[in-house]
Amino acid sequence: MSLTTVSRLLAKFSLSFYVAKIKPKLTEKHKLESLNFARMNLKQPIEYWRTFQYTDEYRSKCYANRASRVLRTPKDEWNPKYFLEVQNMDCFRALCYTSITQQHNLKLQQDNAPTHFSKYMKNFYTANNIELYRFPVMSPDLNPLFHCWNPLKSNISPEECTTYDLLNEEVKRALEQISLDIINHLIDSMPKRLEEVIKQKGDATKH
Description:
Organism: Hexamita inflata
Radius of gyration: 19 Å
GO molecular function: endonuclease activity; nucleic acid binding
Number of helices: 8
CATH architecture: 2-Layer Sandwich
Keywords: Endonuclease, Hydrolase, Nuclease
Protein name: DDE superfamily endonuclease domain-containing protein
């Protein structure tokens, strides 16, 4: 089969090569937990989501410069079948833990990762009168803070930071450049995020 014939067939079925979306690998249990969470909270108003302090960890990774392409149609852009799983990629990591909020005296949002609910952390929450609210495990699409990491990916080159201290300083600098308008917009996107999770039946979304 000639290259011309292949190109003609691809065009006939609207197929082309696109850079793969990078999303975490989700099990059926992860999907079900996110779907149930979204359904349970779908009718909550925006004001409700403004009462949380959202937390997340950022791991600086070198995979951002390793674009992989997949063959798909334009309408399959957000089809999980064509995502690239984060855990299958080589990376260089540095951890940054931060939070965003609109108000004070808030509920602290955490995902259900075991490290957040160790005996030490439970004692810390109790001693400091911190009210917790659990999000599903492996649900970055439900956490508005997750999108605050995007500026970091474009502004930081891990390979140029020879130590973790240097990398952490770069992360802090990039975080300080994120405007309050962006943070408010992300927090107010929670109802839309829930709708997308339900639409995707608990799978990864465009958020």
